[in-house]
Amino acid sequence: MTKPSPIHSAITIVQARMGSTRLPGKMMEDLSGYPLIWHILQRAKQVNADGPVILATTNLPRDDVLAKEAASLQIPFVRGDENDVMGRFLLALEQFPARWVARVCGDSPLFDPEFLNHCLAAAAKTQADVVKFRDDRPTLFQGCEVVSAHALHFSRHQAPHDPWSFEHVTAWAMRNSEQWPDDLKTTLIDPDPQMVRDIKLSVDTPEEMARLRRLYDDLFDGENIVSLRKAAAWLAEVGW
Questions:
Q1: Nearest CA among 141, 157, 160 for reference residue 149
Q2: Per-residue pLDDT tens for 84-141?
Q3: d(CA 55, CA 106)
Q4: Considering only the top CATH level, what class is 8-238?
Q5: Residue 80 near residue 87 (C-beta atoms within 8 A)
Q6: N or C, which end of the chain has less CB nearby within 10 Å?
Q7: CA-to-CA distance for 93 and 98, rounded, in angstroms?
């Protein structure tokens, strides 16, 4: 496997598309005066990566609007096969080689930049390829994770036809890293106990979008991102 030499320590890649089946066009849904993708990209800018935030979208015409939104925020983008999200990540790494990737799902508008910063620091300290929780307890830290660029290349090399990893980019490495200790170094972390809660925060339906709007109506100040911890406190008081 020939890979470009890293230029950056870390980059942040946001995966997003307009072709959602349950909520078509959701990335441009209005949320407190801005499209959903705007909020996602603003959060991604809070990740402490020395490389850029990159939007990874598809090459379909319906996703032109997402590329245009990224460009308006001076965020570079790559475009590729709608059915191969992993391929889009590898394309981003071709253009912006890095040691680690902070991955963000576009349907997770409450993903936590602080959590990604913690994972990046843990990866750098231990030179890990995969950073994951010690157990499978559900947490509010959803829609984002950190893996090395090597982990993505290794995943594609070992499982080139795995449909799960085509869509869920880090899934193969997260699931199999401890079976390949000589190739993928794993660092295990523990979640903040206050954030161990079983609540789905991603947006896939009109009902979930409506709930998110209620949260933003109460917490968004028009400029700064809504922190996950403030959202967690709101959820505890108001409910979801």
A1: 157
A2: 999 999 999 999 999 999 999 999 999 999 999 999 999 999 999 999 999 989 999 9
A3: 9
A4: alpha beta
A5: yes
A6: N
A7: 7
